Amino acid sequence: MRTLRILRRHRALLNCAPISQDHLADRSMRVAVSRENGSGEFVNQQNFDRAVAELVRLVPIPPESAEWFLDKEVVRGRKWSWRRIVLNPAVLAISIAVVVIAGVFAFQVLGRLNDFPGSGTARKLLTVAGSTRSVMLDPVIAEAGTLSDLFFMKHGLEHYDVPDEFADFQTIGCRVFDDDESQRIAQIWVAEKRMQFFLFPAERDTKTGAVLRFPGWRYVHQEGWVGAVMEHNGVCFMAALKGREKDLAQYLSGPKQ
Amino acid sequence: MSDRKQNLPQLYRFCFLMLGDSRKAQEVFNTTLREAAVRAAQGELPQEPFWLFREARWRCLEASKTDLQPESLEIDEHDIAPQAASQIKQLEPAQLAIWISAAPDPQRTALALFYLDEFNYLEILDIAELKLSTLSRCLAHGRRQLQAWLDAKRSGAANA
Known about the structure:
The complex is a heterodimer.
Chain A: H1 2-15, H2 27-36, H3 40-57, H4 63-70, H5 82-87, H6 89-113, H7 119-131, E1 138-139, H8 147-155, E2 171-178, E3 184-190, E4 196-201, E5 218-222, E6 225-232, E7 235-242, H9 245-249
Antiparallel strand pairs in A: 1-2, 2-3, 3-4, 4-7, 5-6, 6-7
Chain B: H1 8-19, H2 22-41, H3 51-65, H4 84-89, H5 93-101, H6 107-115, H7 121-128, H8 132-159
Helix pairs in contact in B: 1-2, 1-3, 1-5, 1-6, 2-3, 6-8
């Protein structure tokens, strides 16, 4: 079957064998022609083709058409200058796309530079903060620092402590809920600047189970909200408000990153 | 663009072989080049090689669409004779062009491009958008049919 195919291709190539030797296009054609060189049938074909080609060369060119030959530049494309290349719509579109992709990539990298253990959960909780309405929380009017006992007594949550910086703030309400990873989250709403506090388990090493600690306060941003997060005793505390970092910075003490 | 890729005398000959009529060939040749000049001025010349031939080919096919079409007959085929070269030498270029232009496409394009002796077979496949097997068939039948026509002409002349 394969031999038949090769023979058929060989025959096809011979039928297309060039009239001039300088048109032997590729190796397969050279091989086909060299194998057949000298055979009577192929010599007849070559003589026939040469005679027809010579006759074609005798086709006279009318003077009206020959005028075109004088101006060889007539159908020659303009040379590409740097300016023309840069202003080419395709090049321009690709350049803009590359700049946008690079910008998005840089934005992502810069965003990741500020990541810390638990930043993913913190961002999700900022989204929760944005969608929470006060009616969703149990009304509790007290100092935020005192809610640690409530969380321990009522929900069995240990070390869900509000840091000293925010312990004196008056609360409006609070609740405890499970997030989509079944982590117990405590949420507190305070009167000050309609700020919200979140307490959630710190991220742990998947292999050893050890808490992944980080020092001081860390900022996260999501949908116009800003959060300041710190870890203590395996629990993260986040103070969140709608605004900018400087709105939160005034409440924080200690190293901020 | 290299001179070979825009060999204008060969482009004219190609039009002549495709149409078999000097006036029509000139018309297609001039239109193709006028269009090319406009595109060149606008900086919109295609980058691909041999586009002039491709353009001219479509114009020739378009121009001959309205012509009287030959009836589809079983055309005689003869083996190529050793004296074929001398038979061909007795022909006029216009006679050959008329014979080629009467062939159905893609055989007409294949014969015209091949006998220009301007392109290798890969370039012909590219310009005419053919497969090797089709080009091979067109050329093989073309030679045998041309031989049969030459033989018929000779016997006709002898009888006369």
